[in-house]
Design brief:
The chain has nine helices and no strands. The protein has about 190 residues and is an all-alpha fold. It is flat.
Length: about 190
């Protein structure tokens, strides 16, 4: 039964994950944290790890949740092979809708690119993507990332604000910003 629930969740993520990984973070969170497959903290960890590993967050989360959810549902006597099967299923299920949409809808859109209807649809979708990405930033501003007491929240917020401002107004490479934030975290915490 867990496999059917996972398939349904990752089909929704695959079909409605318009705008990329950050835009679909709120959808992924509601689909995998909502049923209790993982905690908010683990979700935050998945997002962080997904940024360090190759591949989009949708695929990385599918692989991870596909592995852990069946093992939790079956219990301690579960073979790791049930998790491997879940990883394979979830990863394929989240990829297939995008593949089909790009393959078939892509031809239609490119053929009718100058159409008023297609142009209108994309004009409506662009702001949604921006809103979903902004929502992802707010989702990640939680106690798992910022702490729960002022001594943790204030330095974390200052690091966030500093990196944001440096990224917007300087040409410092993002890798240097990541390293500097990690060093600041090490020294502060």
């Amino acid at each position: 039964m867990i496999y059917l629930k996972l398939i349904w969740s990752y089909l929704k993520i695959g079909f409605f994950g318009f705008g990329g990984g950050y835009a679909m973070l709120s959808l992924i969170q509601s689909e995998i944290v909502g049923p209790g497959w993982i905690s908010d903290k683990t979700f935050t960890d998945i997002v962080a790890i997904s940024q360090m590993t190759p591949g989009p967050i949708g695929i990385n989360s599918a692989t991870y949740i596909g592995y852990t959810a069946p093992l939790q549902a079956i219990g301690p006597e579960a073979s790791p092979l049930w998790g491997v099967l879940g990883s394979i299923i979830c990863t394929l299920v989240v990829i297939i809708p995008s593949f089909l949409l790009v393959r078939y809808a892509g031809k239609f859109v490119s053929r009718h690119r100058k159409s008023v209807a297609i142009e209108g649809i994309f004009r409506g979708l662009r702001p949604v993507v921006i809103g979903l990405i902004a929502s992802a930033a707010l989702i990640l501003m939680n106690s798992e990332n910022y702490g729960s007491i002022p001594a943790e929240i204030i330095p974390s917020a200052l690091i966030t604000l500093g990196v944001l401002l440096l990224n917007l107004f300087t040409r410092i490479h993002p890798i240097l910003l990541i390293c500097a934030a990690g060093l600041a975290g090490y020294l502060i915490f």
